């Protein structure tokens, strides 16, 4: 294992885009005396430390990272962390997760020297939520409607129309992440995480309808796992170890969704005021999104360069993205090949 100069390295591309970004404090489980001598592998998360990262919290509690000879450090994300790829490219973390496939490809196209090695979600958790009294169940239902969404998602909404052979015809309303715009009647639909934002409506007793981006034609990965290229070249063994422990955590998470939810409430998100019942439901909702025909055959976190090229790139082109990077230059399936060694599971 080489000692990486990763944290001192700064890409010109990232330096220009990181101005003004808030400093993010890391968190990790309290290390034992033995663990204090182990190498630390930091990961920039794309959201706050709730149950969205269930597999990681299970891996921590079961000691999987320690078994692999590493200490995992977690850098929380959130609404003020706009681009995790920038953070990794700037040298502040060797591993990162990104929610949106389109923004990840944007960053790679603009010069971020990172390598895509896996994806937690095999499909996007994003959906369009609407009130049951005025439901949106298809792209045809979106025609002429007011769609609320965080600024920047217009191209994905446009792509939904284009993919389905229609001209974009809707009113975009920038609302951030607040579901109340839908409840108050300010919009007819909102883009939201189906795993958790729908639960907020449920708790308010609001009858709503949800249609996934996948069902609308946006079938792409989410919570992609990527690594700084130089760090990967110098520390491949640590990245493989991190992936192996993380896979085990996500495998075990499927056995009992309540365990990771409790860890999120009591440990990792203890200062977030999380609801245990909501976290359990969110974990139940997300577990099916971590699986696919590919993961059934080859194991969790898997990605396919062929699927990106043949199935996802046409979606990006429909979103108006051109000059897409050569998949072979930034996708590496070999690390998870090494993790699984020909099997499709690690714990069973």
Largest sheet report: 5 strands, mixed
Note the total helix count. 16
Radius of gyration: 20 Å
Please report which band the strand proportion falls in: under 5%, 5-15%, 15-25%, 25-35%, 35-45% or over 45%: 15-25%
Which CATH class of the largest domain is shown? Alpha Beta
The CATH architecture term of the largest domain is: 3-Layer(aba) Sandwich
Q: Separation of termini?
A: 30 Å
Rough outline: globular
Mean pLDDT across all residues, rounded? 90
Structural class: alpha/beta
Q: Give the SSE order as H and E letters.
A: HEHHEHEHEEHEHEHEHEEHHHHHHH
Q: How many domains in all?
A: 2
Q: pLDDT below 50 for ≥5 consecutive residues: which ranges?
A: 1-25
CATH topology of the largest domain: D-Maltodextrin-Binding Protein, domain 2
Tell me the CATH superfamily of the largest domain.
Periplasmic binding protein-like II
Query: Helix fraction?
Result: 25-40%
What does this 3D model show about the protein?
This is ABC transporter substrate-binding protein. There is one protein chain. It is built from 16 helices and 10 strands. The protein is about 40% helix and about 15% strand. The protein has helices at about 10-15, 55-60, 65, 85-90, 100-110, 140, 155-165, 180-185, 195-205, 230-235, 235-255, 255-270, 275-285, 295-300, 305-320, 335-340, and strands at about 40-45, 70-75, 95-100, 115-120, 125-130, 145-150, 170-175, 190-195, 210, 220-230. Residues about 1-25 have low confidence and may be disordered. It starts with 11 loop residues before the first helix and ends in an 8-residue tail after the last helix. A 5-stranded mixed beta sheet has the order 2-1-3-10-4. Strands 7-6-8-5-9 form a 5-stranded mixed beta sheet. By secondary structure, it is an alpha/beta fold. The radius of gyration is 20 Å and the shape is globular. The protein folds into 2 domains: about 5-125 and about 220-340, 3-Layer(aba) Sandwich (D-Maltodextrin-Binding Protein, domain 2); about 125-210, 3-Layer(aba) Sandwich (D-Maltodextrin-Binding Protein, domain 2), CATH 3.40.190.10.
